[in-house]
Amino acid sequence: MLRVGINGYGTIGKRVADAVRAQPDMAVVGVGKTSPDYVAERARALEYDLYAPAGRTERFETAGIDLAGTTEELVRASDVIVDATPGGIGAENHPLYADHDTPAVFQGAEEDALVDISFNARSNYEAAADAEYTRVVSCNTTGLCRLLTPLDEAYGVEKARVTLIRRGGDPVQSSRGPIDDILPDPVSIPSHHGPDVETVLPEIDIDTLGTKVPATHMHLHSVNVTLASQPEPAAVQSRLAEESRLFLIPEGMGIDGAGALKELARDAGRPRSDLWENCVWAESIAVEGNDLYCFQGIHQESDVVPENVDALRAMFGLADREESMRRTDEALGVGLSLDSTGRPRYPADEA
Ligand code: NAD
Q1: Which of 162, 170, 270, 315 could cross-link to 265 by cystine, CB 3.0-4.6 Å?
Q2: What pLDDT does residue 69 have?
């Protein structure tokens, strides 16, 4: 049983904690929090042991929220830490993990240089074997790696060009904008996402352009991939439909955007209405010569969650790629797909 500590219990950390807890071969030691707020209360209600940095324990005492110990004690009690603190804090925490010889999985906002390997389960699972420090790449990079890897295997990717229409902030981030605006973000081209994909898939030639819009539900990717050969759109659809972490949105179901996708997730009884899968509009898949086009929606709050679980198994040699992804998907219920009539199937309904 792998003992996992989660340091940072926000958007990503709380989801990773639940996902780790759902795995039969892993246990959550506890979660690291800095503030005794409603999220800390909820963690206690879910029976997660709470840990806080040594200088902040008094705040929890004052608020009447029990702590199991300090962050350092969490690190000591864990075989591995998933650091889900905000960008840059992971790098500050790195020496604490190193001092205790505790391996760690960091998140997308940390630098590639901080870790041994930048990780996506479908793209480079094996490369994380024996890594001490791994980084699960960002939500957008995860979505691009998942799409480009099977395309590259099947047809060869010569060049990818992707425009990312990014949500302004997560639903909980009241301080984020833009409000009533559309921003090139960054205004310089390419955005960092393409180089980030190349930390996982160095052989892929990709340029990305970033924008930001006043939305919170999801990102939208407008994708153009030049392939080495010319496939039929139907063959691409079939190929992508084989991927458990790609959901091909069926034609004619009225799923016209992020709002409908989130409603689908709510109706499917998904925890926090999460969509762990890339959501690729089947009818957007078009081929012009060797150029493939499509739109995909990425749920920024959750697509990296199964990847964190797989990163843990990869680092500790607990399973090979297929077995780990299968176990993770089964434990979480990943894999929206279509039945023989083209209607979405919900794994939760079949469990
Ligand atoms: P968040 O702000 O929602 O959560 C971070 C949590 O860490 C907060 O609860 C914060 O109080 C806590 N924290 C801050 N300093 C800490 C410390 N020193 N010790 C322990 N806890 C501390 O952030 P998030 O959105 O979950 O992002 C975390 C990481 O995941 C970042 O690297 C981010 O880029 C990445 N990520 C975020 C998203 C997303 O859409 N939210 C998607 C993919 C990847």
Answers
A1: 270
A2: 98
